Amino acid sequence: MNPTESGYFGEFGGRYVPELLMPPVLELTRAVQEIVPSEGFQAELKAALRDYVGRPSALYRCPNISKDLGLNLWLKREDLNHTGAHKINNCIGQALLTRMMGKPRMIAETGAGQHGVATATAAAMLGLECVVYMGAVDVERQAHNVRRMQLLGATVVAVQSGTKTLKDAINVALKDWIANQRTTHYCIGSVVGPHPFPQLVRDFQAVIGQEALEQFAARNMGGLPDAVVACVGGGSNAMGMFHAFVPHESVRLIGVEAAGSGEPGCWHSATLTKGTLGVFQGVRTKLLQTADGQIDPSHSIAPGLDYPGVGPEHAFLQSAGRAEYVCLNDDRALNGFFTLCRREGIIPALESSHAVGWVLDNPGLLPKGGHVVVCLSGRGDKDMGIVEDVLARQGGEGK
Ligand SMILES: *Cc1c(COP(=O)(O)O)cnc(C)c1O
Fold first, then answer.
1. How far is CA 94 from CA 226, 268, 270, in A?
2. Which CB contacts under 8 angstroms, 24+ apart, belong to 383-390?
3. Nearest alpha carbon to residue 286 among 296, 214, 397
């Protein structure tokens, strides 16, 4: 479904932004209504997704795990996209929109660096100037992604204020957007932020579910899967996977959040399963906060899930009972990671490993012999360091 004119999905969404940000937000809202649906835009987007990103991505039935579990596990292979994850679908869309809005410059903020790399990639391809803001702590931690962005021609700005992490980078990016709104588009990386971003990013990611629906039907006599499953950080790969399936009420929609270490009182990123309603980064949604509204730190072994907010449409689908949200701890996500490596020869991102790991742990919650489609949001090469640290701590081989 689409949000109301002011951006609400039920009681979630909206635009809680300072007056100075309203002009570019309204300009973007017009562009979403007028440019995105146009034939010219859609033709260019389709060509770029096909020729540059490599779409359609494969829908693959895992032969070995399917046998182990007694159900059919299908993977939507977003890991096979150019740059190795779903994020490029959105960045290509927003970069094309930037150009068609007549703006020569795109800015972004990034924590783990994956969204920064995807933005820098799309900007290079379309000849846009690109500046990526990143907390100074994250610049140190993610040196490899910083070098990738620089190779792609982006300027990476290390933000030295506050805790020197993502939320400080977001503040500086917003200031840049206010100061340079005539020339600049702010490329948000998930289905979060003020209206129209949750809708815009979902519509660019919806290609995941549209393809999966058609590919599944073509190979299963026009049928539908019993469930689709995706990991949820900000919620863009999950929203992209769910969108085409929402009207098909027989299909269960399952979002898997990160439960952190799973120990009582640990930090986690399970916004929908454990969070409460509030306003965060321009949008009314569920988030991790204290009783008096201070944002709690989030944590996950998967860098891309480590975020204390979530897209408002997920909060709506949860409240409406259309989608279910569950959470999985770091160890069980690692079990998903190792199992997919060993049994199927696919190294998944730690984010996607949450979705895989949940299915491995809960085959009994799905119909015996049924069909489940998991969004494999990205590949795991980027996570080798984290996995090696875990193996070293365990003093040996992963199970
Ligand atoms: C960033 C990222 C995620 C989390 O973001 P969503 O907006 O929740 O999709 C998941 N998987 C991978 C591979 C990522 O890079």
1. 32, 30, 28
2. 383/302, 383/303, 383/337, 383/349, 383/350, 386/301, 386/303, 386/350, 387/334, 387/337, 387/350, 390/301, 390/334
3. 296
Catalytic residue flag (residue 86):
yes
Please give the Cα distance from 37 to 157 (Å, whole number).
Answer: 34
Question: Is the CB of residue 201 less than 8 Å from the CB of residue 86?
Answer: no
| CATH class of the domain at 55-84+206-394 | alpha beta
212-233: b or e for each residue (b if 16 or more CB lie within 10 Å)?
bbebbeeeeeeebbbbbbbbbb
3-state secondary structure (DSSP) of residue 323: strand
**Whether residue 375 lies in the annotated active site:** no
Give kind and range of the element (H or E) at residue 278: strand 276-280
Q: What is the mean pLDDT, run by run of 10 residues, along the chain of 399 residues?
A: 95 97 98 98 98 98 98 98 98 98 98 96 98 95 95 98 91 96 98 98 98 98 98 98 98 97 90 95 95 90 92 98 97 98 98 98 97 98 94 74
Please report the atom of ligand 1 found closest to the CA of residue 352.
11
Helix residue ranges, H only, the chain: 22-34, 39-48, 63-69, 87-100, 114-126, 136-141, 143-151, 166-179, 197-205, 207-219, 236-242, 271-274, 312-319, 330-339, 350-361, 384-394
Q: How far is the CA of 19 from the centre of ligand 1 (A)?
A: 30
CB-based contact 236:243 (threshold 8 Å): no
pLDDT at 395: 80
DSSP SS3 for 156: strand
Domain boundaries of the chain, sorted by first residue: 8-49+87-201, 55-84+206-394
Statement: 8-49+87-201 belongs to CATH 3.40.50.1100: yes
CA of 271 to the centre of ligand 1 (A): 15
Residue 396: predicted pLDDT:
60
The predicted model scores a pTM of 0.97
First to last CA, the chain: 42
Closest residue by Cα to atom 10, ligand 1, is 351
Compute CA distances 5 → 13, 201, 228, whole Å: 11, 17, 29
**Amino acid 397: pLDDT:** 57
Residue 195 C-alpha to ligand 1 middle, in angstroms?
A: 20
SS3 state at 106 = strand
